[in-house]
Amino acid sequence: MIYEETYRYLLRHVNSTEFDACLYSVLHMDWDGVIQSPIHQMAKGMGTTEKYLKKIFKKSSSSQMGGGRRIFIPVEQELGKYQFNLGPTGSFTNSKDRYCKKYRFFYSDAFRNLPLPAKRLVLMAAFKMSVNKSEDLSLNYEDIIQLGSSLAKRNQILDMMNIINQALGDIMTFTVASSTFTRKEILIASFRTGTLKEYLENRTERLMLRKTIYEAGYLEHIEDKVCVELERVGKYIFRSFIQIAEAPIKEELLKLARFVYHSSLQKLGSALNSNKHLLAEPKEASAYFSTIVYNEALKQMATYAHQAACIKDLIEREHFHREISEKTLERKVDYSEVHEQIEPIRAKYALALDIYKTLNKWCEDWVISRVKSVTGTNEMEMAQKRVLTNGQTISEYLNYLKKHTYDQLEQHMAVYQHVHHGEHVLNVLRQKKEAMHSYFAIQKDRIKK
């Protein structure tokens, strides 16, 4: 979607080609805002040259594109890729965000060839159409001018109206009318019937999903209805990671969410050849994939718990750090100086510890949500779900979920049985198992009542 922040930026700060670059970006970026389209393909889609597009990226990445912010940020470790830094991405949207849909005409040659003021006038009308869900709408001159759309005078606006009517007359038309109540002159924008539904969807994540599963070994086509359910799990990973995290680790958690989602898709792709029946029922495929995600998140939780334990041990070796500092500085140092020297190490420890705690809570929430999905939140809901849709009883499902939860914890415990500083991870996993044991016991008692 073209969210309000992007919309207002386009009305004030860009030239015509930069305008097109922003519209192209919102159609081809992933949930992290990374434009998953090669520069040559992006240039072709915009009707410009690679050389000029690279110039735009360079200008933007140095905060010179207007508005004093970086709009296209180079992606580290991915040469030639850029992150679009305007508006919420797919993992941060909520129902209160105002937006304009990516209407087909935005990506036509007729629209791209319009002068910049005309593009802005069309965007204003399209945004209002999208928000109001009406193909007939009015615009006041004052509103146009206040939005800083480079249309400052009535004659300029009238000129742009005529240009738009000639170029896009089969899609929309502007006319001048008088307000019934104020008697002031207003603009009436009328879009062709059905235009509200003539928009493009961003299929970038779906293409990446299919590619990941294909490269993992499943070579058949994944139907859209299955992709929708898998993507729903993917969005849940991103949103839930961020919702339970403190601000300092959000960036790291976004990277981790992408890693967990990608690696889980790879494991799903490896398993599908022997589990093709899952694809016949999208909800079943989604549940299976969600379990893979949980297993991967639990693995990462153990990894960060171990990492935190190792860093903590390193921090506590004060004599070692003092020796290193004295060799580096070639003089005697006291422990206050050592304390300053190891500040970056303490920051890494805090990061690893916070991520471990966040994942720990996420894994608990995942199990609890699976239980609530079959028992409900009260006795009446539980009574209505004595037998699940697949023929299992609630008790049978909880026994399965408990066994799976214990099996996963024990597998990770086995990994860290003989690892240096593994005892800390073993304690974490034992505590989690005890907590889950108590939780499942309570649920079992509820069922018996």
Tags for this model:
single chain; 3-stranded antiparallel beta sheet; 449 residues; mainly alpha; globular; 18 helices
How does this model look, in words?
The protein contains 18 helices and 7 strands. It has helices spanning 4-10, 16-28, 39-46, 50-61, 109-112, 116-132, 141-146, 154-168, 204-215, 224-243, 250-272, 282-315, 318-329, 335-341, 343-375, 379-384, 394-415, 422-448; strands spanning 2-3, 72-74, 82-84, 99-100, 136-140, 172-178, 185-191. Strands 5-7-6 form a 3-stranded antiparallel β-sheet. A two-stranded antiparallel ribbon has the order 1-4. Strand 2 (72-74) and strand 3 form a beta hairpin. It is globular, with a radius of gyration of 28 Å. It starts with a strand and ends with a helix.
Q: What would a concise description of this structure say?
A:
The protein has 449 residues and is mostly helical. Helices cover 62% and strands 6% of the residues.
Sum up the overall morphology in one term.
globular
The strand order across the widest sheet is: 5-7-6
- Mean pLDDT, to the nearest integer, reads 86
- Tally of DSSP helical segments: 18
Distance between the termini: 49 Å
| Low-confidence residue ranges | none
The largest β sheet comes out as: 3 strands, antiparallel
What amount of the residues lies in strands?
5-15%
- The H-and-E topology, N to C, reads as EHHHHEEEHHEHHEEHHHHHHHHHH
- The overall strand count is 7
The quaternary organization reads as: single chain
Q: What structural class do you assign from the helix and strand content?
A: mainly alpha
Proportion of residues in helical segments = 55-70%
What Rg do the Cα atoms give? 28 Å
